[in-house]
Amino acid sequence: MVVLDVRGLKKTYTMRNGFLWKKKSTVEAVKDVTFSVRKNETFGLLGPNGAGKSTTVNILAGIVIKDAGSINVFGEPYSQQTKERMNVATAYNNLLDYLTVTQNLRIYARIYNVKNPEVRIDNLLKQFGIYKKRHTRYYLLSAGQRTRVNLCKGLVNDPELLLLDEATVGLDPDVAQDVRDEINKLDTTIIFTTHYMKEIEQLCTRAAFLHEGRVIRVGTPQQLLKLIKEQIVKISYYPTQRSRAIINKLPGIVEEKKSSSVILRIPNTAGAVHDVLKPLMASGLYIKDLHITKPSMDDVFIKLVGKNTANRKGDGK
Amino acid sequence: MKIYRIHGLLLKHWYTTINSVDRILDILFWPIVNLIIWGFASKYVQEAGAGEVVLGVFLGGLILYTIFDRAQKDTSMYIVEDFWNKSVYSTYVTPVTEGELFVSVALLGICRAVIEFMIVALLALAAYGFNIFVVGSLGLFVIPLFIFGWAVGLLVNGIIFQYGSRISIFIWSIPFLIEPFAAVFYPVSVLPPSLQAIAAVMPLAYIFEGLRAALDGAFLMNNFVIALLLSIAYFIGSYALFRFFIKRGRRTGFLSKQ
């Protein structure tokens, strides 16, 4: 079942500089964004800064009005009613500074007409490990604690569609991992924007790559990783005449060769590593170290964004 | 319009108030300070031979003006609070509508204005023997006072939704800009003709002329009707502008960056 269907989304911002006499300029933040998200899917929107991720999420959140395109949520056109079944959490938003955590959450629980709000709030605070801070004023919380409270706010109405915009940005690695673990446990449809490729691999069932306001590729992390055709094998060995002869016969393209190590580029296929290891093992060569680097989403990102930029520059000429 | 969302917003205003010394003191401190200053000034002028009426004119004007002042400031402050807290995003991604926002601050303004009015009115009675409660017809003039207060408050909000909280100063300065034409402490006739023309389109001027007449035991029905119609007209215009600027803020992306 499709929970969200976005077609041909467009948004151009008109920038005005100056207070009274303003100079106009335009920025096409979203040029053509089309994707759909299925029920209980964690769908990633990723891309470099300025790709249009946050604008897309802001349009879906209802705080930015689109110029063109259609948005269908829960099988009906986007409206005030559909907003009641959604929620948003971002690392950039703030709650009211001088209110306690519980007071802030009570407000949103009431706005979304949550039944048994106190129970719901307590459960969320316990789930995100922040229950002890429930009577602390929001401005006294650390960045990690604020992120958790923001997530509690985003989940207070048990949304059927949760928008998470850069939810872990600026957090310490251990705190970010804790937050990712909690997000992973959520049983709802999530749209997740990030520019940390690792998060896409860890959290998302599918992802869309955005670049310069357009979706340039959609797929599962596995499908996206297959875009990278090569993997890297680094072998360190004792340098002898015999070992050099064996190394010279290994399959793959030599990326770098030193007296006691070699870096090979081999195809990103199931049997490719075996083809390298088999002659090494058979020869009885003493291997000091062996390191295989599988393609990561970072490689996919660089390949997609780099290639696209190159194409566009070519088009321009 | 949903009652539970208005309730949620009222809860927000309530928590903001009880967590802020500013919000509690501003319904006590300035009204009482003003009452002391104008009370003694009235006493002095009265004893200098100006007659009994001066106490009613000054204190009556001051007490009634607190209603307009409170309605206007609360309509602005409690909506702009999100700008000061950088929590605009959190509020405006919810299904809350402009109408619900307004109703919540209007209800809050009524409650706070009644509290402020009662404090100042009772203090005026206790300290200077001036009883505003005997001027019964004033109750009607409270209606356009509130409506015009909301209208000015919404207009200020609209400006802040256009330019941001860097011009929050308008919340406090607009009442001072209006006051000279409102004829709070003097009749419109003492103004020069050019300023009288401005006062003629100012609901407050009709209200405070009505107050002075009421102190003499008369009720100026015409003044009440004109004040009410003008207030409603300003309110409709301000509310339309308020909605326009919020929509514009969503269109330009301004709200998402606050």
Lay out the secondary structure.
The complex is a heterodimer of chains A (317) and B (258).
Chain A: E1 2-17, E2 23-38, E3 42-46, H1 53-61, E4 68-73, E5 76-77, H2 80-83, E6 86-90, H3 101-111, H4 117-127, H5 143-155, E7 161-165, H6 173-185, E8 189-194, H7 197-203, E9 206-211, E10 214-219, H8 221-225, E11 230-237, H9 241-248, E12 253-257, E13 261-267, H10 272-283, E14 287-293, H11 297-316
Parallel strand pairs in A: 3-8, 3-9, 6-7, 7-8
Antiparallel strand pairs in A: 1-2, 1-4, 4-5, 9-10, 11-13, 11-14, 12-13
Chain B: H1 3-18, H2 21-25, H3 29-50, H4 53-84, H5 88-92, H6 98-128, H7 138-163, H8 169-182, H9 193-199, H10 203-215, H11 221-252
Explain what the structure shows.
The complex is a heterodimer of chains A (317) and B (258). Chain A has 317 residues and is α/β, with parallel strands linked by helices. Chain A has 11 helices and 14 strands. Chain A has 2 domains: 2-225, 3-Layer(aba) Sandwich (Rossmann fold), CATH 3.40.50; 230-293, Alpha-Beta Plaits, CATH 3.30.70. Chain A has helices spanning 53-61, 80-83, 101-111, 117-127, 143-155, 173-185, 197-203, 221-225, 241-248, 272-283, 297-316, and strands at residues 2-17, 23-38, 42-46, 68-73, 76-77, 86-90, 161-165, 189-194, 206-211, 214-219, 230-237, 253-257, 261-267, 287-293. In chain A, helix 3 (101-111) packs across helix 4. Chain B is globular and about 60 Å long. Chain B contains 11 helices and no strands. Chain B has one domain (3-257). Chain B is 79% helix and 0% strand. With 258 residues, chain B is mainly α. The relative contact order of chain B is 0.13. The interface between A and B is medium-sized, with 38 and 32 residues.
